[in-house]
Design goal:
Shape: globular
Helix content: 10-25%
Order of helices and strands: EEEEHEEEEHE
Largest sheet: 7 strands, antiparallel
Distance between the termini: 13 Å
Strand order of the largest sheet: 2-3-4-8-7-6-5
Strand content: 35-45%
């Protein structure tokens, strides 16, 4: 997907769909796995992987600043911790991790933490990497 491989997926995820969109001069490519419908006809997002491409993504701090605006986060309340995703520096919250790959390129993985573990999140993120 967009020059990335997806080497690991948690067991029990639903059906994938691909999307491409742009916000503030950053292009997103995403694949979303959903389970459903439930008895009320609703679908639930299990997992999302995204690539982000744009000139403003110059380093991890610029990526974080961009995502604060894009996800409408309160920067003081967003509980992030540093993580290494393979060779890449990233930041993780409870249900998402994002990491800086190279100038102009970043990735993000999020999953439903009511169904999947932090190990699932980090293993999936580590396996979501540029194709070599």
């Amino acid at each position: 997907m967009d020059g990335f491989v997806i080497e690991h997926l948690p067991a029990g995820i639903g059906t994938p769909s691909d999307f491409e969109y742009e916000w503030e001069d950053v292009v997103f490519h995403s694949r979303v796995w959903e389970t459903g419908p439930d008895p009320e006809g609703a679908f639930k997002v299990d997992l999302t992987v995204k690539t982000l491409r744009g000139d403003k993504l110059t380093d991890l701090e610029a990526l974080k600043a961009f995502l604060v605006e894009y996800e409408e986060k309160d920067p003081g309340a967003w509980q992030l911790r540093p993580v290494k995703i393979g060779p890449y520096d990233g930041l993780a919250a409870e249900d998402e991790v994002f990491y800086f790959v190279s100038p102009g390129l970043a990735a993000e993985v999020s999953l439903d933490r009511t169904r999947f573990t932090e190990d699932d999140l980090l293993s999936t993120a580590t396996g979501f990497r540029p194709q070599t």
